[in-house]
Sequence to fold (669 residues):
Amino acid sequence: MITTLLIANRGEIACRVATTARKMGIRTIAVFSDADADSKHVALCDVAIRIGAAPARDSYLKADVILQAAIDSGAQAIHPGYGFLSENTDFAQACAQAGLIFVGPPAAAIAAMGSKSAAKTLMAQAGVPLVPGYHGDNQDPVFLHQQADQIGYPVLIKASAGGGGKGMRVVSSTEEFDEALISCKRESLSSFSDERVLLERYLQKPRHIEIQVFADQHGNCVYLFERDCSVQRRHQKVIEEAPAPDMSQERRRAMGDAAIAAARAVKYVGAGTVEFIVEPDGRFYFMEMNTRLQVEHPVTEMITGLDLVEWQLRVAAGEPLPYVQEQLQFCGHAIEARIYAENPDTGFLPSVGTLVYLGLPEHVAFANAEVRVDGGVRTGDVISPYYDPMIAKLIVRGATRDEARARMLQALAHTHVSGVHTNVAFLSRLMTDTAFAAGDLDTGLIERQRATLLPPVPAARKEALALATAALLTIEAQQQTSDPWSITDGWRVTGQYQRAITWLDGEQAHLVRLHQHIVSADSPLRQIEIDEQFYSAHWRVHESPQTDVLHMDLSLAGIRITGLVAMRDGRFQVFESGQSTTLILRDLLAHSADQELEHAGGMIAPMPGKIIAINFEAGASVRRGQALLVMEAMKMEHTIHAEADGIIKEVFFMVGDQVSDGAVLVSLE
Fold:
């Protein structure tokens, strides 16, 4: 058995592997970049070794440095997690040459499945169904354009070495093809050091269903049922569930057999996932095989009761699979939601910043349901532009799908994140969406249900305004000094006290008036006036380890509200009744000094990133909607388009420059 394991990854997967390894009595070694020196995965492991600077290319992608760390620390094996070097053929081969166990498939299997085009050739030979398209080696842009025209639009361009939605574009017409191809090749080269692409017919209203396979070194191979990963944004998964809704036993068996055939075709060993695209009539086609553990593996664990990381470690050590296919079964329904630092209202752009507060549901068990949290960050950690912006994964299991949805809603209501934008409210709306609730799933669900899933941001509720006001008064009281001139408790000779507080809710201002009659210092009688309505109010604050986070019980007109308020620099984030509202305390004295600069006709950076392409120079005429420049941030490309017809007055940055969030990029007349 493996006794010492180096985990060549970070975040929640490194924490996940460390937890299972500890359960098995395995000594763990973490590697970390400068950005992760104080991270959760470092704290969980027995030993931690610095491997470089924050950018992944200078740390987690430096195979030679990681190998040396394993050798120097006496590790027997390396677990690559997912992402980074997990599907790197050269790294797997280098581990073998160094006498280290690579917890994953053989290098030859990774190579076979690493090229989407080569993999599809293999799958055709193995009798696995394929989507019509072009998977060849000819990468001439004119030739590829001709192939796309023959396949018929819409057509999908995909990075041959890619995954995770990177280097992928849906092209609706022949006029859009050339620009999309350039972008795909550039993003593929940046993400995978390989600009080759393949083309496929873009299926209408397809589902994305994947099969978890597992093979050992003794020729045994099983499938652990399916996961439905159809709910996606920007070709990246948002919700995963197991089993897939409306999956018949016959189709499950057919897809499972096809997945095993795919694994056997490349002599696979370890955990792998065979991904299929499924048409509404049930026809399914091979898309790709991920030669690693998947982010969504917990839903499989929840319905089978198996620890797939433990299986990985035992198979890597040469042990046979513990079960044959006929012994495997599942129970109940599991759903996973990925909590991302991103803003759904701005096209799901990632959000960076410090986690002022992070509150996640505790793992709880019920008779027929469970809640599980897999996370890799804590309060005070920084979501940086260097890595994927995932904060945590919430995984729930219920006896039925509806029960699992209800449990997920409850878990999301107890998820409190302050300091960055998140998709928590969006995920809650998704759980109650009529199409999702009915199991009417496909990869276009989010876009199709956009009106209900991405509605205008609602105005702040009175409950949120009252909680923010109560928090402000509480903080002021806690900051009192013995100086009588500094006391702000509202004492008046008459005992009557009124105060007006203005809260900024986006572009809307809310005036809240506090009416207070001080009978004694310990029992003031308060009324809060909101929108000319008066509410009796009193509150109690629970003890909290953070001075800038208040857990409160508020009684508003006799109705009890439990809430949490996280405060930083005049910004109050209020969590109540599953809602999150950000309010800014308006300081009239400082208002004139805080006016934001207005840049007429200026296109600004939606997030920190690097300029990778500039399409026009100063003086050029452009039309509204034309792509002016391209940024790269968090491993994805973001195109900045002209907001109107005009002439470019100035381009403020060059290719290769790093820009900050909100930086003016282009001035347009």
Q: What stands out?
A: Confidence is low (pLDDT under 50) at residues 589-601. The longest strand covers residues 496-505. Residues 349 and 625 are 19 Å apart (CA to CA).
